[in-house]
Amino acid sequence: MLGRIPYKIKQFFFVLIKLSVVVGAFYFIYWKLTANPNLNLDQFVTILKQNNQFSFKTITFLISLSTFNWLFEILKWQILVSSFKKISFYSAMEQSLSSLTASLLTPNRIGEYGVKALYYKAEQRKRIVALNLLGNSLQMLVTVILGCMGLYLFLNRYESIINVNKILLVSIIALVIAGIGFLAVSKSNLQIKGYSFQSIKNYFQKLPFKIYSQAFLFAFIRYAVFSFQFYYLLTLFNVSTSYYQILTIITSMYFLASIIPSIFIFDVLVKSSVAVYLFAFISVNTLTVLSTVTIMWLLNVVLPSICGSIFVLKFKRFKS
């Protein structure tokens, strides 16, 4: 049926879709900034004006950290795709940033998988989806490993306040359910787009160890960069707690926020709530925490999304 539609009409609808994605992304960003019940936009701007720490030099340093954050994400994607095809750094950047912009409008950023796949031939798209899943899984693995270590240290320090037994019980139940689910899927004949679980498993096993190690290293460096950025922002708000103590809370925060189920509309609210709860233990006021989370979102999501919108408008789909 699509083949019967005139070429000019298809081009018109394609341009309309790209414009809709960009306009929708910008509206989503605006909505996030104005509809936050915990920190309204006027209050946020007032806090920044009252804080004399945000000089041109400081802002430049913060943007540099965000640039490094996305630099390693782009390098991670370039390394993953190199498992079957060499792509330039510019192509990896285009795919990473445009998929970020488009994924703002989808639950749990699932649109990222589809947008990256559109840059490749039809027979390569399943492989791209699998590699994107691997990249996100490695980033999640870093979050879980460091988060568990941070949460362990955090609970040891504040065990008299938090019911550790309940947390352990819930964690054990979740691990058992996840284990049973994994075994059930691995033993079943379940297929995803014609591929069995075993064939997907075999594909990942055939990938060179070098791909895994380099992608994991970039994921770890990226985590270290945005964790330090969070700490640095807190110091700008005159939080004088030691780096070690704040780091245990930051790693715990990212871990808990990543495992709490949420849809994209409430994602920032969930992270804000977890951050406010954890930083209350070291007496960091709510406005400081919410402002820090908001600035992190602006620097690491909004800023690259604006750059990605340029690539979305320039995008030309790969003809299959």
From TrEMBL:
Transmembrane segments: 12-33, 53-72, 129-155, 167-190, 211-232, 244-266, 273-291, 297-315
Protein name per its UniProtKB record: Flippase-like domain-containing protein
UniProtKB keywords: Membrane, Transmembrane, Transmembrane helix
Lineage: Bacteria, Pseudomonadati, Bacteroidota, Flavobacteriia, Flavobacteriales
